[in-house]
Amino acid sequence: MSDLHRKWYPIASSSDLPKRHVYQAQLLGREFAVWRADDGYVNVWENRCLHRGVRLSIGINNGSDLKCQYHGWRYANRTAGCTYIPAHPADAPARTICNNTYPAQEAHGLVWAGEQASGDLPPLDGFEAATVLRPVPVLAPMEMVVEALLAYGWDDSCSGRANADGSVTVTAADGAEVRLFVQPMDSNRSAIRGVSNQPVKGADRIRLLKRHSWLMQELRSQIEACASSQEAPPPYQPVIARVSEDLVDIPAIGTEMRKAELRVQVAGKEMTAEGIVSLRLEPVKGSLPTFQPGAHIDVHLPNGLVRQYSITNGPGETDHYRIGVKREPNSKGGSAAIHDAVKAGDVLAISAPRNNFPLRRNAEHTIFVAGGIGVTPLISMARALNAQGLSFEFHYFVQSDDHVAFKPQIGEYEQALILHKALTPEATGARLTEILAEPGFARHVYICGPGPMLEAARAIAAEQGWSDETVHFEYFANTAEVDDSTAFEVDLARSAMTLKVPAGKTILEVLRENGIDMPSSCEQGACGTCRCGVIEGAVKHQDVYLSDAEKAEGKSIMTCVSRAVSDRLILDI
Amino acid sequence: MLKLYDYELSGNCYKLRLLLSFLGVQYRSELIDFYPGNQHKSPDFRQINPLGQLPVIDDNGLVLRDAQAILVYLASKYDPSNRWYPRESPELLGQISQWLAFADAITATASAARLHDGLFYSEIDVEAARAGAHRLFRVLDEHLFFAEEEGQDWICPGEHPTIADIACFPYTVLSEEGGISRIDYPAIRRWSDRFKRIPGFVVMSGVFPAGPAATDRRQAVA
Fold first, then answer.
1. Final residue of a structural domain among A101, A121, A141
2. Which residues of chain A have a CB within 8 Å of the CB of B219?
3. CA B123 to chain centre
4. CATH number for position A436
5. A106 Cβ under 8 Å from any chain B Cβ
6. What percent of chain A has pLDDT above 70?
7. Are residues A308 and A410 in the same domain?
8. Which of B145, B149, B214 faces A20 most closely, judged by CB atoms?
9. Across the interface, which of B182, B186, B210 has its CB nearest the CB of A16?
């Protein structure tokens, strides 16, 4: 990396980035796809899809994510994390699939970037109300352009001087001043980007812009004539970083338990409904990892408890996570701690988001069935489908109007929202029977809510002909009694180890004691994080995560609660 | 029914497919094997167009060649709204004709470079063709930049696009296939997005669709 790579350069005018457009830029040979999200954030990314290398500058800016033209991979605003891969079997790409992003700032009507830029932008005193000139690309090396710009002027009184930051200032006797920056697109290609200190409007503005556009193009002809008489320097050879090592390496043996690698600050805490508090969590430093609709995070509470909460964010809302927490009357201390002890400004430790409740986006129609606080993961899903213009309906079962949470968020898809208020369990069953009347073709249903409602909905769906693959559900908790009285052996096929699991211990605990790093989250068989493949042996399933078909198939096990029926299990780990 | 002598990879034929789609006019494509068959130079086809070039239309016996001429004819005949080719405005007609000629110059340069790179027209001086296209694109980019400054979306003034936009669009957006990058022409790239959002827009090989525009126009400019 040279000093050039550590500098800030203007790479676009702010007006080059209208919403829903992708701008193509280049700096020191490296191409960028530059796009403004609907929330105003300016993304400067490697101009290359991670999948097949196609330029993202021909992609589609959806306002919250950028979609590659070739195979439709989607990358999130801010994080550049991949949020969707069409036809991916799990419909949930690994969170670690992330494009390269570069530092960017917007100031004085210009967008500034640099491969490894840091520190302050060049000071632009006197240009607070500046007019950004039309940029002029020049086929010549940066140094040659800077040299020529010293002679730039619009009347006889103009004089130019070189600044320490590499720019040129041209001043006229009447105080009119132009600051000219040269963007080194490649070794033999540059762009002149100027700002004038004249805050002009209307016809005067166009006259000023045209005058400078003309003068710069006249100067360009001279520079290019000079440059073409010299041998062109070899083009820069930017290196596109390979996938990071930790993605391709086998992870080292670790003994960590549940990870809480992120620190977030509670930036807002407010009641969103009767008994439900909404928390806005912002990163203490850096940015938050990409989430997918349906994902949850572990929140490590001051009292030592760890709880899982779904992210309610819409696509592209990547500068914070918003979660909802219901005060449980029989709280063991989790929800009470959040309601009573956590204050705005507090710092909490959380895990990176995990998605064990992925959303398919190839359904003809999607039905969401939310009960109470079970609405949270479904809000994020519905917002994603709504942003994509896909067909869905959103059924939200609540006790009363006061219990309707996240009204601004669900208001985004008002047209698809159907509230069902104050229904008895019998009436709820009857309503679910109507909602789930037609399995139809390529229709999917997602259910999240209290256990009894979930059981009822799953049973009704099955009765009415919905196949197991089309019914997706997430339990908050596993309320079943877990039997851990058996003892058995587990063979770890990949790790080449045989371990004994005694009565009173879970497979997960035994794995960790022996240095096998298995992720986990709820540790009660509800969230699906500690799922492991089963190669051989019969499983006694005690979780509520796997579907009945998956349980019958016996190819997976939740290592936090489930055990062996046989003497031995061979696990794919 | 209107007959279009058509070739899938021809930008000039695409101009007509675009206008016919914008206007909702039914037509039938008579496919001519331009490459590798060289059918446009065959005796049969030269009896339809002695220049041996595509596109040609046959509208109830009226046989017309030249993409720009056919755009004028189709817009005059089939656009009751009179917006694609506003016949009563001499000022606009003059400007449209100027840009139709400019579109021909784009064909002579950017399309030539594309034929060289993509369809093995090795006799073409590709460096001269590319340099010529860049000269034109510099002019078009500046024109579109100042059109935007004046609150205009299209090549000719007015609320609605004209056949000048259609004539300039195909070989401009296909230029990368001839090794002509548009990275230096941000105003052309923005105009391409707007063009792709015209209701009735259709793609051809090498032309990609745009996503929907920001819903509120005032919000579109940040």
1. A121
2. 19, 38
3. 24
4. 3.40.50.80
5. no
6. 96
7. no
8. B214
9. B186
What b-and-e string marks burial along B103-139, b requiring 16 or more CB atoms within 10 Å of the CB? bbbbbebbbbbbbbbeeeeeebebeebbebbbebbbe
ipTM summary value: 0.95
Rounded to a whole number, what is the distance in Å from the CA of B183 to chain A's nearest CA?
Answer: 6
**Does residue A462 lie within any of the structural domains?**
yes
pLDDT digits (tens, 9 = 90+) for B70-89: 999 999 999 999 999 999 99
Q: Which of B184, B189, B222 sits opposite A137 (nearest CB)?
A: B184
**Residue A103 shares a structural domain with residue A135:** no
B104-161 tens-digit pLDDT: 999 999 999 999 999 999 999 999 999 999 999 999 999 999 999 999 999 999 999 9
Could you tell me the CA-to-CA distances from A35 to A58, B43, B149, B183 in Å, in that order?
Answer: 11, 52, 21, 14
The amino acid occupying position B38 is: N
The verdict on a CB contact (< 8 Å) between B193 and A21 is yes
SS3 content of chain A, % helix, strand, coil (to 5): 20, 30, 50
Place of tokens 């960017």: A104
For residues A533 and A494, the answer to whether their CB atoms sit within 8 Å is no
Residues of B in contact with A135 (CB under 8 A): 186
- Coil, strand or helix at A106: strand
**Domain presence at residue A177:** yes
A106 and A2 belong to one structural domain:
yes
Q: What is the CATH number of domain B90-199?
A: 1.20.1050.10
- Spatial separation of the C-alpha atoms in residues A307 and A310, rounded to whole Å: 10
Encoded tokens for B218: 């005032």
Is there a contact between A57 and A65 (Cβ–Cβ < 8 Å)? no
The residue segments making up the domain with residue A504 are: 488-571
pLDDT in tens, A15-39: 999 999 999 999 999 999 999 999 9
Structural domain count, chain A: 5
User: What distances in angstroms separate CA A522 from CA A297, A325, A391, one per listed residue?
Assistant: 10, 15, 32
Contact with chain A for residue B69, Cβ under 8 A? no
Q: Which residue of A has its CA nearest to B131?
A: A139
- What's the CA gap between B35 and A358, in Å, rounded? 47
Tell me the pLDDT band of A250, cut-offs 50, 70 and 90: very low
pLDDT band at A280 (very low <50, low <70, confident <90, very high): very high
Binary contact (B186, A23; C-beta < 8 A): yes
Domain membership flag for residue A248: no
CA-nearest residue to B148 within chain A is: A15
> Mean pLDDT over residues A149-175, rounded?
95
Collect all residues of chain B within an 8 Å Cβ-Cβ radius of residue A38: 214, 219
Let me know if residue A244 belongs to a domain: no
pLDDT band at A258, cuts 50/70/90?
low
B146/A134 Cα distance (integer angstroms): 9
Q: Where are the domains of chain B?
A: 2-78, 90-199
Judge contact between B64 and B57, C-beta under 8 A: yes
pLDDT tens for each residue of A176-206: 999 999 999 999 999 999 999 999 999 999 9
- The arrangement of secondary structure in B2-78, i.e. its CATH architecture, is 3-Layer(aba) Sandwich (3.40)
Average pLDDT over residues A379-384: 97
CB contact under 8 A, B214 and A38: yes
